[in-house]
Write a structure and sequence with these properties.
The chain has about 250 residues and is mainly α. The chain has five helices and two strands.
Length: about 250
């Protein structure tokens, strides 16, 4: 850029030391105004045109906003190159549905001619599908205080409501029919159900209330008194060995 010349009657140091500027002059006082001259106008013209052409635009005398358009275009291009690399995945709040400069990673396709840099990075014109959610997944934490963003499984029935946890509520209702149908965690232990068992199917307890029959062996004691246990109810055909003999149902 070229400043006004003192030879063209510029005002000396108008904007600081060595920064001369234009002056209107004072005809009554005999002070003539500054004459820019062709050289100064050429400098100014080429400075402005250089910005317009650097943005890939063509100087058009019918437009009065080319300088603004060029600056915006250059800034956007430079900012995109200085920030996240092309193809980077960024999360946005739900309220921002279509952020400028980003495509939704939903598995859809895009035109290679429109986004050549993205095509080069991905290796194809297909976007990754990241629409799946981890809402509702289960995890084990060996600590008493679970991390933020998680809820204890056995508190689902009392805490998960449509207003408190809308996404989790929708997922569980869609999967189980209602929050009341979500079983406590003790119903999800893996049990030996045999080869016919199916993942996700609930089965009754395989280890429930049961009893054990104990056999006592006594030596040299004819006064041993044994109390009969109600084993007939559980094991009617069992036998108990006492003093070398077999006593059925004792």
């Amino acid at each position: 850029m070229k400043r006004a010349d003192l030879e063209k009657r510029a005002q000396r140091d108008k904007f600081g030391a060595g920064k001369h500027g234009f002056q209107s002059g004072n005809p009554a006082g005999g002070l003539l105004p500054t004459i820019p001259g062709a050289e100064w106008f050429d400098h100014t013209q080429e400075e402005i045109c250089a910005v317009i052409e650097a943005a890939g635009l063509t100087v058009d005398p019918s437009k009065y906003n080319q300088m603004l358009t060029a600056l915006r275009k250059i800034i956007d291009e430079q900012a995109s190159g200085k920030g996240l690399p092309v193809g980077a995945v960024v999360g946005f709040p739900r309220a921002i549905s279509s952020p400028e400069g980003y495509l939704k990673a939903d598995g859809s396709t895009f035109a290679q001619a429109t986004y050549p840099d993205l095509h080069r990075v991905l290796g194809s014109n297909k976007l990754p599908n990241l629409t799946r959610s981890d809402v509702g997944m289960t995890a084990y934490f060996p600590v008493a205080d679970i991390p933020d963003g998680w809820i204890k499984y056995d508190e689902i029935a009392t805490k998960v409501t449509q207003s408190a946890y809308p996404e989790l509520y929708r997922k569980l209702v869609a999967q189980y029919g209602s929050i009341a149908n979500v079983k406590p965690v003790d119903d999800y232990f893996v049990r030996n159900v045999g080869s016919s068992g199916q993942i996700g199917q609930q089965y009754p307890w395989t280890v429930g209330d049961h009893h054990h029959v104990l056999g006592l062996v006594a030596y040299g004691n004819d006064d041993l008194l044994l109390k009969r246990l109600p084993v007939d109810k559980y094991y009617p055909s069992q036998t108990l060995r006492l003093n070398g003999g077999i006593r059925g149902g004792v």
